[in-house]
Amino acid sequence: MKSARRFLSLGVRAVLGVLLLLLGIAGFFAFAAGFADYPVVPLAPKAKPWIRGAYHVHTTRSDGQGTPAQVAAAAKAAGLDFVVLTDHNDLKPPSATWADGVLLIPGVELSTSAGHLAAFGMKRPLQGVKPWGPPEQAVAAVEAAGGTAVLAHPVQAKNPWRDEATARQVPGFELYSADTFFRQALRNPLSRLLPALGASMVNPVHGVMLLVAPEPEPTARFLELARARPRLALCAHDAHGLPAYEAVFSALDLEFPPELLPGPLSQDAREAEAQVTQALASTQALCVFRALGAPNGFALEGYDAKTREAPVGAVLTVRLPEHVPGTLEVRVWGEGRLSPDGQHVELTGPGAVQVEVWAHAPGRFFGHEWRPWLVPSPVRVVPRAPGI
């Protein structure tokens, strides 16, 4: 009996010791978070504001923790203009409405036998679609309703997209996903989750940014699909309330340059919905990890804006906002080669090229780590016309 009690006591002490160690480590990251300096790129004086919003957000209409009104309040606190709500299999969502100065736009995330399909911009009700039905049924229903379909977290370990035919048909692709980053961190509790949790105690936005660790699979899959036709790249919040809505909205958003959507949005909710969803589907929206700074001054030039295509041999130009040297770098994937000046991309072969701007952001300790900042949709590279 005494030996059993002693063994139990040792076990309790061991567990407490581990918990205290983890709390101590979390406390260290919390202390370091107090020195994290945001933004990395300050807003230029007199810069014209871009329309900003969140895409792929869940509420209590499915598995989210906040009501639509609470989501709107969080979006307002984060400085957003709109939120695209995509509750699971919500085939009859409420109409677009203004709430607390934020436009709430109806969308949906459909569960299919091949994975999840997000959709927005429907002009008519979705018809002929059932939860967990065949993927082609869901894709056809969104198309018939006049909406834009997007492969939701298509290479995520949980619920990836598994149907090749519809993957090549759907125009949109979630390239980065805050929920995917969170799930990746759950698989790496000591190296990724614990630092983020510790930082969140002091600086919730920094805690979210510490989760941002892109992996190569989504980009490789995306570029493969983009070879055949122009594709829409979106960064998804896939927000459920954990991490907190406001922290996720402050860390990441989708933005429209003034030449695409001058703003302000119409006060008629239906008209404003059409403004946003058309701009969102245009491939000209920019994914911005907003904690790192505003995108004013950024531009990607040298391609046909209507088709989002450019011929082999063309050179894309990346216009960067004013910044401290050494804090930004252009990164290129696919059929492109970055020039030594770091701001021009020569297109090297048919296919697609992805050009992103990364920033030297606050790291887990007291140093810095490179993280994505500005993420446009890819440019499709087509063969040069004969004789040119």
Give an account of the 3D structure.
The chain has helices at 2-33, 68-77, 135-144, 164-169, 178-186, 189-200, 204-209, 216-226, 245-251, 269-280, and strands at residues 51-57, 82-85, 97-99, 102-112, 115-120, 148-151, 172-177, 232-236, 253-256, 286-288, 299-301, 309-311, 315-319, 328-334, 336-338, 344-347, 351-362, 368-375, 379-382. By secondary structure, it is α+β, with helices and mostly antiparallel strands. It has a domain at 51-296: Alpha-Beta Barrel (TIM Barrel), CATH 3.20.20. The protein has a 15-stranded mixed β-sheet that branches. The protein has a 4-stranded antiparallel β-sheet with strand order 11-13-16-15, with no helix packed on it. A hairpin with a 5-residue loop joins strand 15 and strand 16 (344-347). Helix 5 crosses helix 6 (189-200). It is globular, with a radius of gyration of 22 Å. The chain starts with a helix and ends in a 6-residue tail after the last strand.
Structure in a nutshell:
By secondary structure, the chain is of the alpha+beta class. It has helices spanning 2-33, 68-77, 135-144, 164-169, 178-186, 189-200, 204-209, 216-226, 245-251, 269-280, and strands spanning 51-57, 82-85, 97-99, 102-112, 115-120, 148-151, 172-177, 232-236, 253-256, 286-288, 299-301, 309-311, 315-319, 328-334, 336-338, 344-347, 351-362, 368-375, 379-382. The protein has a domain at 51-296: Metal-dependent hydrolases (TIM Barrel, Alpha-Beta Barrel).
